[in-house]
Write a structure and sequence with these properties.
Radius of gyration: 19 Å
Shape: elongated
Helix content: 40-55%
Strand order of the largest sheet: 1-2
Order of helices and strands: EHHEEHEHH
Length: 110
């Protein structure tokens, strides 16, 4: 799931856990269902006041949608979003030269 965060556990989830995990605590499940809330980490990003480089692969197997990458970039006050088109999810293996060139340039500006 993206964006990363904490899930809100519901009754269907608790029933599935009870069905599949022998001896699971009913109190634990009830507590998780009653007390959990959906929380996205992106909500806390604006509090970070550090320079941040966001690398987004442009390949077909990218797990970070461009809309979310842009939202993260807009949430961080001192961030830079760079999309690397010649690689997929494993950008450091797929295209290490381009990745390291971008990182070195960013680090030189910090």
């Amino acid at each position: 799931d993206y964006p990363p965060g904490y899930p809100k556990f519901n009754d269907a989830w608790a029933e599935n856990v009870k069905k599949n995990i022998e001896g699971v605590s009913e109190n634990l499940l009830n507590g998780l269902v009653n007390e959990s809330e959906k929380k996205y980490f992106i909500d806390d990003l604006a509090e970070l006041n550090i320079k941040t480089l966001i690398l987004k692969s442009g390949g077909e197997d990218s797990i970070l949608p461009i809309e979310l990458a842009q939202k993260i970039n807009n949430s961080l006050p001192n961030s830079k979003l760079v999309t690397l088109n010649n690689c997929g999810h494993e950008m450091f293996s797929d295209n290490p030269k381009e990745v390291f060139d971008v990182v070195k340039k960013f680090m030189g500006a910090v």
